[in-house]
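General statements about sequence and structure are easier to judge against a single worked case. When preparing material for the folding task, we compiled for one chain both its residues and its backbone structure tokens. The amino acid sequence and the backbone structure tokens for this protein are reproduced below:
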Amino acid sequence: MTSETNDSVFAGLDAIDWASLEHAYGPAGDVPDQLRALCGEDREGRGRALHALYGNVFHQGSRYQASAFAVPFLARMAADRSLPGRAEALELLSALAIGYDEAHLPDGVAVAAWRHGIAELRAKGPAEMIAEYDAWVARAADEGERRAREFQRRMFDFDRHLAAYEAELAAYDAVRREVPALAALLADDEPAVRAATCRVLAWFPEEAAATLPHLLDLAAREPVPAVAATALIAAGLLGDAAVVERLRPFLAAQDPAVRWGAAIGLARLGSTGAEAAVDAAVLAELAAAETEEQDGEDLAVPFHDGDLRGYAALALTQVADRYPAEALDAVTTGLALAAGPAAFPVTAAALRLAFGGGRQAALPPFAELDHSQQRLVTTLASLGDDTWCWGNFLEILRGWHIPADRTELRTYAGLPTA
């Protein structure tokens, strides 16, 4: 790292009273050295610094006082072409802005509701919130649910709760202030930087008037399929009905990733009321994405942690009002090919498609399910140990009153239990 880099990237770093700021483990006095280490020549040292920063300012998805203060320096690192690891800096910026992106997909960031919710929480104050908790506890359906709700009510700390929400929004707004400078990285020489930049920009609908034209232009000229697909998904997350005709030609692209990116973007636009966005071609490409195999390419579409099948399953829930049976059939096909954590979002999407938005009180007899529901239950019961061993998977099943014991589910479906 040259002295010029040090001056440009870290200007003002030492003027911040980091020790007075909090991160996940207490005072944030260690953050400046970790930021500097990200620009070091030692690759292993950079990896350790990145790991430490994730643990400190983005601990298991949480953001803290110090998180927003780290943002300008990460943005400058990403923009300095003399530095390594710029895509990783952009990925951390995305994380600081919105947490895990699965929480915002497939619809995008509802930032107006987010801002309103925090303002409403501030206005209520602790007494009103405790009263709401008491009423919530009183509405419990049974004794077990009442005890669980009472535990949450006892653990509720208004000041800590509000501080956590405010830290999240402060980090989001800190990244938003960097958007004009980051948008220039759509023209970067490194494909990974271009893709990571698309993903960052996708979370800021309040900046869409400035960023959306650049994303569409990038998609039209981009030679790397994964980057083009990422730009199309970002455009779909930010756009409205006016974008539909810009995305539709990409459904005929030669590379499947580009077609799938366009279909995911169009599915989201259709869910916003752009009726012309969704047709049989969109359904066909989303269904094809469900059968795709992860091929281990160095550069993947970064949304949804690179899990294109899981993201396509979410997108299929957005077209279910028009193609209910076809959407469920496609997601069930994808579920049969998934395993382990990759099966979680596909399972959740399939259950939503099969049994509707409201979760049923209990499963009816297997013979009373329709053919698509039976196929889904049979597929779930046929998944392997590498999926059934996960508590996350079992919790998804329990949420829909699906037996969380594989033998029990196979018995219910009339399958051999050996």
